TrEMBL record:
The keyword Transmembrane helix does not apply. CDD domains: BDH (cd08187). Keywords: Oxidoreductase. GO terms for molecular function: alcohol dehydrogenase (NADP+) activity; butanol dehydrogenase (NAD+) activity; metal ion binding; methylglyoxal reductase (NADPH) (acetol producing) activity. GO terms for cellular component: cytosol. This is NADP-dependent alcohol dehydrogenase. Residues 15-184 form the Alcohol dehydrogenase iron-type/glycerol dehydrogenase GldA domain. It comes from the Bacteria. InterPro entries: ADH_Fe/GldA (IPR001670), ADH_Fe_C (IPR056798), ADH_Fe_CS (IPR018211), BDH-like (IPR044731). Residues 200-372 form the Fe-containing alcohol dehydrogenase-like C-terminal domain. It holds the Pfam family ADH_Fe_C.
Amino acid sequence: MSPSAEIMDFEFYNPVRIAFGRDQVKKIDKFVPKDAKVLITYGGGSAKRSGTFDRVVEALGDREWGEFGGIPANPVFEYLMDAVEKIKTEGFTFLIAVGGGSVIDGTKFIAAASLFEGNPIDIFASGVGKGLPVEKAMPFGTVLTIPATSSEMNPITVVSFEELQAKVSIKNEYLFPTFSILEPELTYTLPKRQLANGLSDSFVHVMENYLTYPVGAKLQDRWSEGILHTFIEIGQEVLADEEIDYNTRANFMWTVTNGFNGFTASGVPGDWSSHALGYEITALNGTDHARTLSVILPATMKVRKKEKWDKLLQYAERVWGADAGDEEARIDFGIHKTEEFFRSLEMPTRFSEIGIEATDIDYMVEQLAVHKRDRLSERADQTLDISRKIYEMAL
């Protein structure tokens, strides 16, 4: 049974201005100071090919601007430091990230590192740096092109370290964007794989705060269930090859943003073990973040069934309509439907689909220890041995 039946104390803060809908990029002129010198960050070049970059430049008007491109998926510390040096050398005062979660996460780190007094690696903990606090950051805005992580409306960044084979996150209130532009039409050119990744990534974000233990947070539970229902309802429509529907993409974009912007996480415990285990997979072989989660979440449900019994049952009944058999049969039905949902998006649910073998498990468990991820989950009771069992279940 749950250790608590009362909603937990919380402090909620989210200062991000959202401009949602058609032709919102032009509002950059209103949101960016007139005297700002702006560095536009982006990824592999789709921002330019799609014309979005030029629209941002047009919206900046007479402001002085520069660019820093090539931010990869799973933004790399060593590469991001080149942008930090550029900012210090050329005197930029404002950042605009044009891209998805990786570009936005990378830009958040750049914003913090550019004003950090000391070695920016020490912003990070988890065995990478000293875990020193971020006490200021450059102001920045975002133009979201790939809905997936909610980074456009949260204070979290995830950065990878090539030499250390590590992937580490930071949460700090100075990492909130000042504004985020959400134009659903910017998703029209995305390949199916990126759309599926976005649906899956956000689905698991919601589950990390939902699939814990009951604390009487009725509204948060219903918010989470509503988001999950929406993903299930629109998933196939988002991936459809036929004519793209604006309202479907609008619901997709806004639902993803709400998946991890703090609303569903307030007053409830959080797990985040699926993410921790998934980070080690990405660090090992570069698998897309979302594709690690679609494998790890079902395995976690199976291994941690007893510990998550109450919420697994609620999830199965409320989200998937399980109403037959005893409690365990309903829970198993919910787990099965979760795997079935991921497979319907052409997402992997087994290690064999993402290039992980049984011989890799020892190394990943060792890395969990190195990165101080040896007491995971909402109760801090997921030991390395349990994490090993989850990896083994995913084979």
